[in-house]
Write a structure and sequence with these properties.
Elements lengths: L6 H15 L2 H14 L7 H22 L8 H22 L9 H24 L13 H12 L8 H20 L6 H13 L9
C-alpha cells in the first residue's frame, strides 16, 4: 500500500491538530476516565458510556479526519464519514439499550482492562520512548489509541456486541495498523492485537457479573 504523504507530513498533521484543539485533550481524557469508572458504579451506566463513545467517534471523524488529516489524504473524507457513522451508531445503541456494560468480569474483563490501560497510559509512554513527543504524536482522541480504548470498553459488556457496532472499529484496527507500521508508529501494534482480541471474544455472550 503506497501512502499519498510522507512521514514528516503525517507527523505535522498531528502537531497541527494538537495545537489547534488544545486543551481539548484534557477534556477527552476526562470523559474517557468517566467511561472507565462507570462500569464499577451503580448508576444507569449503559447510556452514558455509549454516549461517551459516540462523542469520541464523532470528534475523531470531524476534528481529526475532516479538519486535519484530509489536508494530506483525500481518503480522510471517507474515513471521517465512517467515524461519524460509528459515533451515531453508538448513540443509537445507547438509546435502544443494545450495549449493556458491567463491572469487568473474568478473562474478558481482564483483557478489557489491559486494553484500557494500554490506550490511556502505555500507548503514550511507548510513543515517547520511540521519539513521538507532543505535539508531534498521536494523543488520546486520535483514531488509533481511541479505537483501542473503544474496544477495551466493549470488553466490559455483557452479551454479544452487535456486529454493526464492531464492524468499523475492527476495520480501522486493520487500516490504521497497516498505515502506522509503514510510518514507524510501532505503538500501534496494539491496535491490531486489540482488533484480533475483539474479533475472538466480543461476538459471543458473557455472563453478567453478580
Amino acid at each position: 500500500m503506497e501512502l499519498p504523504f510522507t512521514v514528516d507530513q503525517f507527523m505535522a498533521v498531528f502537531a497541527a491538530y494538537n495545537v489547534a484543539v488544545w486543551p481539548a485533550q484534557i477534556l477527552l481524557y476526562a470523559v474517557a476516565l468517566l467511561a472507565v469508572l462507570l462500569p464499577f458504579s451503580k448508576v444507569a451506566r449503559d447510556g452514558w458510556i455509549a454516549t461517551v463513545l459516540g462523542f469520541l467517534w464523532l470528534w475523531m471523524g470531524i476534528a481529526y479526519h475532516w479538519l486535519h488529516f484530509a489536508s494530506i489524504n483525500k481518503a480522510a473524507y471517507a474515513f471521517g464519514a465512517l467515524f461519524v457513522l460509528q459515533g451515531l451508531l453508538f448513540l443509537f445503541a445507547g438509546q435502544r439499550g443494545q450495549l449493556l456494560f458491567q463491572r469487568p468480569n473474568g478473562l474478558r474483563g481482564v483483557l478489557g482492562i489491559a486494553l484500557l490501560l494500554y490506550a490511556l497510559i502505555i500507548y503514550p509512554m511507548l510513543g515517547a520512548a520511540m521519539g513521538h513527543v507532543y505535539p508531534n504524536a498521536p494523543s488520546f482522541g486520535l483514531p488509533c489509541p481511541t479505537t483501542i480504548f473503544t474496544l477495551g470498553l466493549l470488553f466490559c459488556t455483557t452479551g454479544k456486541v452487535p456486529w454493526w457496532i464492531l464492524a468499523i472499529p475492527l476495520l480501522w484496527s486493520l487500516i490504521g495498523f497497516m498505515a502506522a507500521i509503514k510510518l514507524g508508529i510501532r505503538e500501534d501494534i496494539g491496535l491490531l492485537v486489540a482488533g484480533a482480541m475483539a474479533a475472538v471474544f466480543l461476538l459471543r455472550p458473557v455472563k453478567a457479573a453478580s
